[in-house]
Design a protein that fits this description.
It contains 14 helices and 15 strands. With 495 residues, the protein is of the alpha+beta class.
Length: 495
Amino acid sequence: MTQLSYKSANELAQMILNKEISSSELLEYYISRVEKFNPDINAIIVKDYENAKLAALRADDELSKGNIMGPLHGVPMTIKDSYDLAGTVTSRGNPALKNNIAPKDALSIERLKSAGAIIFGKTNVPYNLADFQSYNDIYGTTNNPWDLTRSPGGSSGGSAAALAAGLTGFETGSDIGGSIRNPAHFCGVFGHKPTWGLLPPRGHAAPNVLSQSDLTVIGPLGRSAQDLETGVLVMGGPDEIDGAGLKMDLEKPNKTSLKDYKVAAWTNLDFAPVNQETQSRVNNIAETIIKNKGIVDFEAKPDFDFIESMDTYASLLHPTMASRSSEEDYQKLLDKLEKIESFDNNKSTTLDPTHDSQSAYTLKKQLSSLRDYNMANEKRTHLRWAWHEFFKEYDAVIAPIMATDAIEHDHSAFGDRTIMVDNDERPYFEQIFWAGLAIASYLPSTVIPTGLSKKGLPIGIQIIGPQYGDLKTIGLAKLLEKEGYKFQSPDSYPD
């Protein structure tokens, strides 16, 4: 029998409805685990126990009257420290925001609470949500429950670590460069990057920011594929303005068996290589689908150039990320660009002559013009139509999300970091290609666990589907979960 702390959110909700356990009892149980195990992992960095206890009592009282609040009735959960939770700090890992007390809940948090969720804490992130690791100068470093010397990923690293260690019942994160899917992969949980705009992000932003930035999405993490579906349906749908004319009406999966699927499978690319173990997991899933009489095509690809698509993604990502910068940080970027331009004009400068590098490429993208951005958006729109045509024939793409399993902690400067892909030393941010495939074109992508590596670390694989095909990618994940691609818990955190 699955340990209570490792049950899915939907299983926990059913236990509460069946009165096998009360919401208050379950909350106290998770709090006791946080107090016992969190000091080593450092996943949960803001605690809101007292308000949660009151909310759990209300949930139990409502149930005693026969009232069910929603699909998450009474389930204790935590949220990423980038969502506003009234009365708590939303820091986004930025020391400048360490005293930023949220005056009200984010819209998605309102919806989770209305569905019965009991939110008792917030989980750690990197500085400004901008890394594959989760550490900052306010709360320190979050460790991977499978190996404390390694990262749980980022930027939703605290979210995935808390789930993997059984410290919470459910989680929700955000993704602009793999920030839901990379931690899900590193920690062995399920994660879903929704179609852009499907889950309105109001209250998931820096103070006083209301507009949704390009590329960025919010989305669920859980210990089952069903949890992801629940999260999308609870948090999804237009906000109050768009709701005057729009509604969420996602197409439900029409396939009940793997034999009904025709998918493309991508294992590796020369310019963004992944290690052999990760490639083998894509092959394993492909074999599972084939064994069940489904069709897998290892050659099929949309009609665009992958390297050009990566450049388009970078042309959208870097200025979007730079727009989050403070005035001081943005001025530093401008100063660096001025030095590059001075060097290019053969003027005296202290800039290293090897400036024509990945760092210079990124800097120029960060400070690109509106014209540049609009040209990239036009290219992205062509990508979207190419994907649209592709998904007329194929139901999904099975692909890696990262190049390796969980990496060791590395807090050196971004430009100095590398990763080892088998025996090949590669640039740290090169692997963002795999995340960017779905992000640049607004596509949904679901990460499922595939078991442990030789080092005893989880490996996840992503399922990419058509725009607004969120329930389709999650539906395929459900079928694969039944075939054994499911969450498994570390051994270090028993009751």
